[in-house]
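Please, structure for the following, as tokens.
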Amino acid sequence: MEMFLMAVCISVLGLAVTAMAFGAATRPERSVVQPGAQPRAAKSEAHFFVAANAQPRIPIEALLAQIENHVRLEQAAAESFMEYPTPALLHSKTTSPFVN
């Protein structure tokens, strides 16, 4: 009986901790606005998105050409394995720059 009560108490304690953590995670963020203070969120968001946009853009045609080349190389490797299956061909890597 004592073991059962101990298990129930620990379960209730665990449920309470989980409920508190869930409540803290889903609570909307409160912001205290002081008179005369300027909002800092706009400045920090702008700085955050500047770093994300600094990466060079790759045209979709270049990505599609790389994928087509990879598929062609994988198909050639599969065809050569089907003609003469060996363990060495099964575990060999293709010349594709993508990881198999």
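The helical segments are 2-26, 41-53, 60-83, 87-91. The mean pLDDT is 79.
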